[in-house]
Structure formats: C-alpha cells, structure tokens
C-alpha cells in the first residue's frame, strides 16, 4: 500500500480540506488516519457532500467546535483495505459513511439499531472525539478509516456522486418520515427545499403520502413538482397560512434558521406533529396554546441508525430517488459555503475528491 507510512505505525497519510479556526477559509493539508484495527476498513473517498451542518460546525455556530476541523459526513467511496476480522466488506466494495463512526454497541438504543441516540454518546464522523479521546475528521478527505459496523453498502443502482448526499440528507429525512408514518392517506408538508428538503419530497412521495412543499418563494415550484410534490406554496405570502390552516398530519421542518413556529403549528390537523430536523443555533419560541388547541406535538429527529441508513439507500435505489447535485472542486468549497448561505444551490454541492 503506497499510502501506508511505516514510520507512523502503519497509519495512513491523507490529504484533507481543513478549517484551522471558526470561519477561517479552508486549507489543503494532510492528516494521519489510524492504523487499521481488526474490524476497520480503509475507504478511498470519491465524493463528499456538503451539508448545512458542516457550515454550522465550521463556523462554530453550535459551540464546542474542535479545530482544526475536517468536515464532511456524506461520504462515498471504495474499500481499499480491510482489517483481519472484517467480514462485511471486501476490497473494491462501493461504500458510504454518514454522520457517525462509532457507538457503545451495548446500550438499549445501540442494541435496537438507533446508534445515533447511544447513551454513552455516539461518535460523530467529524468534530467529535473518539472513545480514545482523539479528534475525528470527516469526508473532505481522500481516505478515512471506519469500523465496519458503521459503513453502509451503496447499492449497484446508485451512482456514487448522488449517493453521497443520501448518507446525511437522505437518512435525516427518511427516518422521521417513516417514524411518523408518512404514507397513503397522510398529508405531509416539507418546509425548506434545500439539501434535506429536496430529498424529503422524493421520499415522502415514494412512501405514498400527499406532499406539499412550503418554500419561501415560488422559484423552486417546477422542480418541487418534478421531485413528486403534489402542491407548493410560498411562505413569503401570508395567504399561505390562512389557506392551509389545519391541513397537515405531519410537517417536516428542514430549515436551518428559526421559523415562526406558531404559524406552522396552525397548519397541523388535530394530533398532527411538527418534526424539526433543521437545527438553528438559537432557541425556537412558540405559544403552548398552539399545541393545546389541537393536541399537537413538536418533535425533533437526529439522522438515523446504521440499519435504517442501509434500508434508506436500498429504498432510494429501488424507487429511483436521486439527489440533484452540483459537483465542485476542492478549491470551491469556501465559495460553496457562501452560496449555500444565500440558498444559491440546487440542491446539494458534492466535492469531487479527486481534485483535492
Ligand atoms: P440547506 O441546503 O441550506 O437548506 C435549507 C433550506 O431552508 C433552504 O434551501 C431554504 O429553503 C430554507 N431556508 C434557509 N434559510 C431560511 C430562512 N432564514 N428562513 C426560512 N427558510 C430558510 O441546508 P440543509 O443541508 O438541507 O440542512 C438544513 C438544516 O438541517 C441545517 O440546520 C442542518 O444543520 C440540519 N440538519 C439536521 C440533521 C439532523 O439530524 N437533525 C441532519 C442534517 C442536517 P427555501 O429556499 O425552500 O425556503
Ligand atoms: Zn448533515
């Protein structure tokens, strides 16, 4: 293996895009990936999606950022080496890695396949510390080492570039749609048509729900209908909130900023649920009466477990669910962040790692 660096105990040197401190521009540098443990696989990354969470993290909007930081949790590539105990994967397999790379494996949530809620604390793919206390570094990188239990197989029917956004945007929307029973007879609204929102439309439609998109402007209407939306409204038009009162069983909020929560709660039927996956740094506000008057709920949801992520990729391949992406070079990531903040992306940037 040419990349094995023998003076560092068989660690793998890999090129990465790294942020030295909050809001600083990206730098090309190298890091060492750990020596393969018996259950590890070494992945040669081909594509890495840019999630809005990468921006929240690299700008340290949520606090507690660990710098230098190598973001990226929408990873797709090939297995190029396996540890001696690996059984699930072989060299040459097409694989993905999502938002987390380890968990305790013993708590009730790990045992039930919802590792993201691990009571010991799930290990994030980047901007986290592993159980040995070493910082984790993500997918804006040529290589990554991950224990096989946290690696997902990319089905043959999915190209790698479009598979990468599904590893976060896909599972983050698929999981709550399933959990809250999006399906035939259910009226589902997707708020915000960005990276998450545009795949949420496709999943909710494929699950059989009646899908309405609530976007700020009418600009994305044609594409929303193309993704399978039945209806589309602009939230900048106050008439939207009178016309749609009491309409939805489920509202999936994918917006990265705070919304007028009471306004959205008023669009729920009795027993309806507003599920937040969008993760603004500032607290939301709402009136308790907005819940009481319709036995409504507000909920949140964090990505999805490994088993469900595999199920989501297989479902996407089977139903022809494909993120709409713009592939960029490694030296365009700073500009891509600015464009995402201006909502100037249709609908996910994906870094071609061969340009790193
Ligand atoms: P994105 O591509 O930037 O999409 C967000 C969309 O929200 C935009 O396209 C825009 O849609 C809408 N929006 C943006 N600013 C807004 C504002 N000020 N007011 C109203 N609407 C606004 O982001 P993303 O990658 O989809 O991520 C969305 C959020 O989900 C982020 O906060 C991210 O951190 C979070 N996230 C959470 C999880 C989880 O596990 N819960 C996982 C991944 C990401 P329109 O133009 O259609 O209005
Ligand atoms: Zn993400």
What does this structure look like?
The chain has 356 residues and is an alpha/beta fold. It folds into 2 domains: 2-153 and 324-355, Quinone Oxidoreductase, Chain A, domain 1; 169-300, NAD(P)-binding Rossmann-like Domain (Rossmann fold, 3-Layer(aba) Sandwich). The chain is 23% helix and 26% strand. It has 11 helices and 18 strands. The protein has helices at residues 52-58, 108-111, 160-163, 169-179, 195-206, 221-226, 239-243, 261-265, 288-292, 306-319, 333-341; strands at 4-5, 11-18, 27-33, 40-49, 75-82, 94-97, 100-102, 123-124, 143-147, 152-153, 187-191, 210-215, 231-234, 248-253, 268-276, 297-300, 325-328, 348-352. Strands 4, 5, 6, 9, 10, 17 and 18 form a 7-stranded mixed β-sheet that branches. A 6-stranded parallel β-sheet has the order 13-12-11-14-15-16. The radius of gyration is 20 Å and the shape is globular. It starts with a strand and ends with a strand. The model is unreliable at 1-7 (pLDDT under 50). Bound molecules: NADP nicotinamide-adenine-dinucleotide phosphate and zinc ion (ZN). The site of zinc ion has 5 residues, from loops.
Poorly predicted segments: 1-7
Specify the structural class. Answer: alpha/beta
Bound molecules: NADP nicotinamide-adenine-dinucleotide phosphate, zinc ion
Give the number of DSSP strands: 18
Name the overall outline: globular
Kindly summarize this structure in a few lines:
This protein is an alpha/beta fold and 356 residues long.
Q: What does the secondary structure layout of this molecule look like, with pairings?
A:
Elements: E1 4-5, E2 11-18, E3 27-33, E4 40-49, H1 52-58, E5 75-82, E6 94-97, E7 100-102, H2 108-111, E8 123-124, E9 143-147, E10 152-153, H3 160-163, H4 169-179, E11 187-191, H5 195-206, E12 210-215, H6 221-226, E13 231-234, H7 239-243, E14 248-253, H8 261-265, E15 268-276, H9 288-292, E16 297-300, H10 306-319, E17 325-328, H11 333-341, E18 348-352
Parallel strand pairs: 11-12, 11-14, 12-13, 14-15, 15-16, 17-18
Antiparallel strand pairs: 1-2, 2-3, 4-5, 4-9, 4-18, 5-6, 6-10, 7-8
Helix pairs in contact: 4-5, 4-10
The chain binds NADP nicotinamide-adenine-dinucleotide phosphate (NAP) and zinc ion.
């Amino acid at each position: 293996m040419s990349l094995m660096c023998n003076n560092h105990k068989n660690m793998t040197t890999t090129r990465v895009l790294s942020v030295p401190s909050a809001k600083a521009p990206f730098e090309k540098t190298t890091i060492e990936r750990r020596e393969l443990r018996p259950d590890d696989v070494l992945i040669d990354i081909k594509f890495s999606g840019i999630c809005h969470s990468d921006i929240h993290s690299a700008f340290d909007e949520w606090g507690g950022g660990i710098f230098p930081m190598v973001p990226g949790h929408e990873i797709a590539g090939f297995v190029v080496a396996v540890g001696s105990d690996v059984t699930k994967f072989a060299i040459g397999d097409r694989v993905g890695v999502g938002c987390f790379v380890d968990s305790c494996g013993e708590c009730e949530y790990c045992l039930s396949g919802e590792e993201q809620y691990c009571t010991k604390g799930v290990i994030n793919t980047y901007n986290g510390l592993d159980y040995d206390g070493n910082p984790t570094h993500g997918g804006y990188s040529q290589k990554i080492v991950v224990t096989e239990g946290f690696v997902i197989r990319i089905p043959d029917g999915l190209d790698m570039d479009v598979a990468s956004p599904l590893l976060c945007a896909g599972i983050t929307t698929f999981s709550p749609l399933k959990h809250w029973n999006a399906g035939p007879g259910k009226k589902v609204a997707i708020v915000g048509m960005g990276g998450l929102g545009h795949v949420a439309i496709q999943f909710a439609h494929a699950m059989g729900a009646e899908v309405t998109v609530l976007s700020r402007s009418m600009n994305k209407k044609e594409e929303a209908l193309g993704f399978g939306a039945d209806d589309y409204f602009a939230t900048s038009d106050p008439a939207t909130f009178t016309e749609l009162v009491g309409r939805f069983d489920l509202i999936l909020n994918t917006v990265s900023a705070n919304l007028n929560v009471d306004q959205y709660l008023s669009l729920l039927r009795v027993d309806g649920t507003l599920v937040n996956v969008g993760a603004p740094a500032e607290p939301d506000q709402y009136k308790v009466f907005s819940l009481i008057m319709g036995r409504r709920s507000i909920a949140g949801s964090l990505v999805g477990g490994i088993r469900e992520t595999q199920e989501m990729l297989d479902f996407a391949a089977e139903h022809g669910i494909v993120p709409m992406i713009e592939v960029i070079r490694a030296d365009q990531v700073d500009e891509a962040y600015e464009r995402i903040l201006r909502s100037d992306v249709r609908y996910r940037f994906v870094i071609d790692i061969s340009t790193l």
